[in-house]
Specification:
alpha+beta, metal-binding, Peptide deformylase, 3 helices, EC 3.5.1.88, iron, metal ion binding
């Protein structure tokens, strides 16, 4: 999960099945996003589904699109005053920390039909996109934490690296 991923050259049945499996995995784990490297695939692919965040007060849903596939994405622009929000990750179960991210993201990508799109998202969708985009470039949200916060989480992170965690879903280290 700490390396850049490879572009997907064509949309075939294997990639379509992978996308379906990623949405299913994400839903089963109560996640809002999942990137291919999180499931051991070094591909420039992530899925986001923020359905159900409509009533979230701290990070409201501001887009009409709530579910999307991003293949070979490239962030074109980040904009808006950065906002802190408590973020978590399926790869770091049980850890939720404040992370600052821009309010809007413009991203160019191929959709689930392999059609090129360039769209701007804001709110929770923008946050989820930035989070998952980081995964395909070898970053975790914990990389944004201050050294003090990281040191306070050190024992939890060490346990996770050994496969010891409290997630109710199977993790790669198990």
């Amino acid at each position: 999960m700490r390396t850049d991923c490879e572009n997907i050259e064509k949309l075939d049945d294997q990639i379509k099945r992978l996308i379906d499996d990623m949405f299913e995995t994400m839903a089963a784990a109560n996640g809002v996003g999942l990137a291919a490297p999180q499931i051991g695939k070094s591909l420039n692919l992530f899925c986001v589904d923020v359905t159900g965040w409509e009533d979230e007060e701290d990070m409201p849903l501001t887009d009409t699109v709530t579910k999307r596939v991003f293949i070979n994405p490239e962030i074109v622009e980040l904009s808006g005053e950065p906002v802190k929000f408590k973020e978590g990750c399926l790869s770091l179960p049980g850890i939720n920390e404040d992370v600052e991210r821009e309010q809007s993201v413009t991203i160019r990508f191929l959709d689930e039909n392999f059609d090129e799109q360039t769209e701007t998202f804001s709110g929770i969708m923008a946050r989820a996109i930035q989070h998952e985009y980081d995964h395909i470039h070898g970053k975790l949200f914990a990389d944004y934490l201050t050294p003090l916060r990281k040191s306070l989480l050190k024992s939890k992170l060490a346990k996770m690296s050994k496969g010891i965690h409290t997630a109710k879903y199977r993790c790669k280290n198990q």
